[in-house]
Amino acid sequence: MGEVKTPEPSRRSERSHQAILTAAVELVGEVGYARLTIEAIAARAGVGKQTIYRWWPSKGAVVLDAFVSLSGGNEPAALPDTGDLEADLKMVLRATVEELTDPRFELPSRALTAESQSDPALSQQFVEAVLRPHLTAIQERLRAAQRAGQVAKGVDLSVAVELIVGPLFHRWLLRTAPLTKAYADTVAELAVAALRPASRKPRG
Amino acid sequence: MGEVKTPEPSRRSERSHQAILTAAVELVGEVGYARLTIEAIAARAGVGKQTIYRWWPSKGAVVLDAFVSLSGGNEPAALPDTGDLEADLKMVLRATVEELTDPRFELPSRALTAESQSDPALSQQFVEAVLRPHLTAIQERLRAAQRAGQVAKGVDLSVAVELIVGPLFHRWLLRTAPLTKAYADTVAELAVAALRPASRKPRG
Amino acid sequence: MGEVKTPEPSRRSERSHQAILTAAVELVGEVGYARLTIEAIAARAGVGKQTIYRWWPSKGAVVLDAFVSLSGGNEPAALPDTGDLEADLKMVLRATVEELTDPRFELPSRALTAESQSDPALSQQFVEAVLRPHLTAIQERLRAAQRAGQVAKGVDLSVAVELIVGPLFHRWLLRTAPLTKAYADTVAELAVAALRPASRKPRG
Amino acid sequence: MGEVKTPEPSRRSERSHQAILTAAVELVGEVGYARLTIEAIAARAGVGKQTIYRWWPSKGAVVLDAFVSLSGGNEPAALPDTGDLEADLKMVLRATVEELTDPRFELPSRALTAESQSDPALSQQFVEAVLRPHLTAIQERLRAAQRAGQVAKGVDLSVAVELIVGPLFHRWLLRTAPLTKAYADTVAELAVAALRPASRKPRG
DNA sequence: ACTTAAACGAGACGGTACGTCTTGTCTTGCC
DNA sequence: GGCAAGACAAGACGTACCGTCTCGTTTAAGT
Q1: What digits encode the pLDDT tens for the residues D106-118?
Q2: Which residue of A82, A188, C33, D12 could cross-link A90, Cys pair, CB 3.0 to 4.6 Å?
Q3: Is the pLDDT of residue C182 over 70?
Q4: What pLDDT is attached to residue A24?
Q5: Range 109-138 of C in CB contact (< 8 A) with D
Q6: Closest CA to C159 of D135, D188, D86, D192
Q7: Cβ-nearest to C127 among D163, D175, D201
Q8: Contact between chains at A167 and B159 (C-beta distance less than 8 A)
């Protein structure tokens, strides 16, 4: 995931490839993303710098690949569907809070989000590889709820997903307040209320 | 705003101070934050590098000060209160979309958000100086609505604020989809629905 | 000329061999010896790098072979013997000046002389392949002159040869002054005077 | 000696300057010129690479300065004048042979001569700083001899000097044969014979 | 003609050094 | 005596080549 450049990938050394990803993961944990250097990755991986530059366009791209390979298998697949939307959402949002708070994921995630601000291509890859599966899983659960009449017919589910996760990321990224499970619960409750088919709209 | 270091501030050259902020604003617009250097700011401002290092701890801090001085007076003060919460929120969210899309603000904002990921001190200053006034203004409007019975009594308004702005920032920061005024409207509608007192959720 | 390594020479591709020498000659003329690279020779010759490393031990060795193949046939054979030693020497020294000044020969010659300073093996090959024939030709002419009584009996002719060509190379290599045919003539006259059988030695 | 570039020399750190020259001398002795790198000089000298690139245009220029500062004071001044030209020349040529054979001088000298082949500016500086004093000293001795009637009136002394030293350098640079004191003596004898006024050549 | 082992082109690899750039500190000399 | 100017040590950048090492693919001997 990530290479778009020219060289013949069949001749790629899988040994070096893995060593680079491993070294990147280790080093980003040890010194942080800002003080992470290509030279250090190459040295730690026992690899020439050119081998990194040959296959990745930037430091961010290496770290993204490393991060993806790290959180490799744990595709969130689908949310459980207990029939209780609010409970299911609370579960997934609590899990999200836990992940965003786990230092193992927090540092690389913040780094990639930061890097994405100035590198739209990286941003795209980051979202598709890391974020999209989570969003899609939630959206599928919402679709089921919509079919079950727990979510109003007219709601655009892609917006609904961001209504749910947006507040969490906002607090995480901007550190407006501590990111807790209580907050996750409150957001889930409010979101469910927002999506519920209108009993009546008292506005007019 | 921003200085925390030692030297005697009374002897500070206001002329150099302003020149530095101006140069930073110009340069961040010309080359972007990533390629912005302290040396270039000093050169453009006609100032010794030491004069920058003396008063600011990092490149981010200079840019934050420059950004704040740029958007100086326009404190958002308070939201209008037309009595129609949804309409008032749509107005402020549309304005927010406009600002986040305005290249004059977008680049420095993204840069400072990115830099905040690895610099919690900067993050704190950024939030307090730039973001907090907006959040507070929205929260005040919500308090009025709560008093008017348009928002449920039990709702934690600081969470409500993030429910409203979170989805916008999520889309802006992660570029999951284009950030449009239609999206702002939808978010406002859903948020109002979430906060409405109405019948408590019919689930139990 | 030059190969000392192991592989079976009968299977050598003459096509590649020639292409390499041609490419080396062209490139040394285009970019000079210092900026000449094995990679560039291989690319220009349409040859794998290994094919060069297989048959030559160093860049200098390739260029030496290329240079020898360039100045291939024109073995100086023997000097003319008009009976007038001084005239014959002037002729050969003037020709030498011309060659040392001809850009076609000057650049590779200087490069190989330079390289020889740090590579005695190359030095040996260079001297034997390029220089020795010239020196030998002059020495033969001196031997004839010695037989004819124009050169003193006791003179060591190998030293005499270097007395003649040394001053030319000195000026060429060290650029102490322009290398001209007038200088060649003067050197020839002085050398002949040095070698002439002593009328008497007015020293004692 | 050597700097031709822009920066203000008054602010130059004499400490770093000396450390660089010392490191260069040491390293050229330890690993030879070809394997000498700017990086190693900087590391050994405890100096940033830029400090070298700021003040010298090339590796050769650094080594030349280092070499000159090494052989700093020992200006050859003037040759002794015992009245016996041949004896005096033998003395100086033997000394030259000794110097050219002394490893302390041989390696840098060969390196600078080699480098001069592709860098005429360096060549010029090398000749003027290192070689010219020797040549001038010999030329002065020859002038005295010419006044004393031991050298023919019409002889161009600058050519005469190269007649004397050229054969030595020829053998040293091209390694046509071992460079010995016996060779130096023979060259001196032949040179004196060449320059002697005596009976004009009996040829015409 | 068939086999087989080499030499071949291509080019990825681990490395080294390049010359440039930027950082944050230190120094000099002008005003 | 405060400040611009800029030299300095440090070290990462991205590039260029080095010489070695696979890869298939010719190619030429020796069957």
Answers
A1: 999 999 999 999 9
A2: A188
A3: yes
A4: 96
A5: 110-111, 113-118, 120, 123-124, 127, 131, 135
A6: D188
A7: D175
A8: yes
Separation between the CA of A11 and the C1’ of F24 (whole angstroms)? 11
Q: How far apart are the first and last CA of chain A?
A: 52
Q: Which two tokens stand for residue C19?
A: 């292409």
Q: What is residue B200's three-state secondary structure? A: coil
Residue of higher predicted confidence among B200 and A14: A14
Task: Determine the nucleotide nearest to A38 by Cα–C1' distance.
Answer: F12
A203 has a pLDDT exceeding 60: no
Tell which phi-psi region holds residue B46, choosing left (phi > 0), alpha (psi between -120 and 50) or beta: left
- Residues of chain C with C-beta less than 8 angstroms from the C-beta of D83: none
DSSP string, chain A: ----SSS-GGG--HHHHHHHHHHHHHHHHHHTTTT--HHHHHHHHT--HHHHHHH-SSHHHHHHHHHHHHT-S---------S-HHHHHHHHHHHHHHHHH-HHHHHHHHHHHHHHHH-HHHHHHHIIIIIHHHHHHHHHHHHHHHHTTSS-TT--HHHHHHHHHHHHHHHHHH-SS---HHHHHHHHHHHHHHHSPPS--TT-
Q: How confident is the model at residue D79 (pLDDT cuts 50, 70, 90)?
A: confident
Structure confidence at residue A73 as a pLDDT band (50, 70, 90) = low
HEC letters along C63-76: HHHHHHHHCCCCCC
Which of A163, A186, A196 faces B167 most closely, judged by CB atoms? Answer: A163
Query: DSSP H helical segments within chain C, as ranges?
Result: 14-31, 38-45, 49-55, 59-70, 85-101, 103-118, 120-126, 132-147, 157-174, 181-195
Phi, psi of A5 (to 5 degrees): -80, -170
Which pLDDT does position A3 carry in this prediction?
Answer: 41
Chain B residues 92-111 within an 8 A CB cutoff of chain A: 110-111
What pLDDT band is residue D182 in, cutting at 50, 70 and 90?
Answer: very high
Check if the beta carbon of residue D188 is closer than 8 Å to that of residue D167: no
**B85-195 CATH:** 1.10.357.10
Residue B33 with chain A: CB contacts under 8 Å:
118
**Domain map (residue ranges) of chain B:** 9-70, 85-195
Q: Write out pLDDT tens, residues A31-47.
A: 999 999 999 999 999 99
Q: Is the CB of D50 under 7 A from strand E?
A: yes
Nearest residue of chain D to residue C172 (CA atoms): D117
Q: What is the pLDDT along chain B (204 residues), one digit of tens a residue?
A: 434 445 667 777 888 899 999 999 999 888 889 899 999 999 999 999 999 999 998 899 999 999 988 776 566 667 889 999 999 999 999 999 999 999 888 988 999 999 999 999 999 999 999 999 999 999 999 999 999 999 999 999 999 999 999 999 999 999 999 999 999 999 999 999 999 996 544 443
Question: In what helix (H) or strand (E) does residue D12 lie, and over which residues does it extend?
Answer: none
Which chains does chain C touch, 3 or more C-beta pairs < 8 A?
A: D
With CA of C42 and C1' of each nucleotide, the nearest comes out as E9
User: What CATH architecture does domain C9-70 belong to?
Assistant: Orthogonal Bundle (1.10)
| Cα first-last separation, chain D | 51
Query: What residues of C are in contact with residue D106 (Cβ under 8 Å)?
Result: none
Between vectors from CA C127 to CA C121 and to CA C129, what angle results, nearest 5°? 100
